[in-house]
């Protein structure tokens, strides 16, 4: 979450809410309310248990299933007044709490101003202390401590990735952000200019806040799922992995990106035995092009003439809908979310049209069949040998668990395909894996003379595992 702020803005907030005083955790909560993740429809701050535990610096209690975030919220109510409240956490519906509170107009104006501030005269939000290189080192120690805590709760297969990524040197990112001490690099300036030109205000502001935090913390840290419901690892701070693809590519110019082609689609085509999808992939079909075409648009033309719009529509309309279908989202929720996205981007058609596409229809039918099989068998075993059981309970709870099991099984295969790359990177000085993105990663080559040989080796390792499982995918490579 956002760490620093313009001193004058912090002073104004402090004067408005003197009860914040020296309560660092309340300051962090207020910062999250102002600049944190918002619920898509209501735009209220989302506050799950992990977010609250990080704000209070109580991760060990969270991972030990001994944490309650209500106390923090109740303390904040004492400072902000009775108008500060929150919704209930709905476990069976996978809904986190949201905070209900509106800042006074003059404070909201300051919050909005801070989003666009790139001033070097800044202080830490929680302590009010001036930001400096020495204080940044303190933050680094804190992030490393949190990384060690969460590492112990990671799935065995995720630990080699976590260990590697969290031990990367900070200067990898320093070189991207700064040309020299106090002078921003061209990569940084170009990324900032691109973000400032994003039309969608919410997306623009979230990317600005992420860039601010990259400037302050530089290094990305990773964490496992605290609920233990996936092999995947996730960014633990606002960092490069949380940038939009186009922004990330601009900031990391000079690195290389490698991604599994049609990753999740190709994996479930095998796991769920969907011949229509396998035939489509074998014929070199491109799913995003196909879905844009289904809605009367030419993806290749959009890439050339309206790149930003294309990337946004691909991500928010088609990618979220496809992955939602794969990961077990209820059709009612999928329809609701996709229709909203289609309307936001001015695309004619609705979610029912999306579901009518032959590939999507086959995927939907295979998913339903797979879910029935899981319910009948009572469990599924991932490629790493982890058995996940359907819990006892009501039908709604079982259905929720099965949807999670669908995702866990596919995501484990995804990790299995890419693990050899981490093993190789750990044994060589030729290159570094610099960003981890679930179905791909970024690479910085230290020895240019061996670059092509190492690219072929990386691709070969991944391809061997894909061929072993009969998964029709390959590792795409792009120089940034």
From TrEMBL:
SUPFAM superfamilies associated with the record: DNA/RNA polymerases (SSF56672)
InterPro entries: DNA/RNA_pol_sf
Listed name of the protein: DNA polymerase I
